[in-house]
Every structure is written in structure tokens, then in C-alpha cells.
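User: I'll paste a sequence; please echo it back and then give the predicted structure.

Assistant: Echoing your sequence first, then the prediction.
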Amino acid sequence: MSAYWIAHVTVLDPQKYKGYTDLAPQAFSKYGAVFLARGGAFEALEGERFERHVVIQFKDLQTALDCYNSPEYRAAREKRDGHCRAQITIVEGLEG
């Protein structure tokens, strides 16, 4: 059953955040991530407002968790620390 990363991000320092965007694709590629939404127009209707919204599909929950906890993604996260505000949730999709 598919699983999804749902990420909400506000970049605080675009130049320093680039370290993250340079490294993260390695992890996403390794774990077969499929981007369903990345940035684009949005309407924030409730809750905290972030400037970017990303939805990434993985083949299953374990693969999504493995990607997040991988050495490749850990290195990318270290590059973004202090340079963005982020909220990331991994959720399992519906059957059938």
C-alpha cells in the first residue's frame, strides 16, 4: 500500500537551503519517490501558514520511513537545519 510524505516548508535562507536541495534528490531517487505536488499555487485555509507544500509518493510506509532515515536524507536534513521551518508527516494511503 502506498505511503506519502506530506511536507510544509518555509525557506528562511534560500542560499543556505540550496545545500538541502542539492543532496535530497539522491535519497528520493534511491527510494523510488514520485513527486505528486511540489510548490505551486495554494490556499492555506487553516493552521500555520507555510510557503511550500510537497506530496511525495512511496511504494509503502516502510520505504517512506527508510528514505527519511537514510544516510542520504540525513545529510540533506543537516544542510537545511536552521534555514527553513518544516513540518513533515508520513501517512499510509488507502487500500484499493
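The helical segments are 14-30, 61-69, 71-80. The domain at 3-92 is CATH 3.30.70.100 (Alpha-Beta Plaits).
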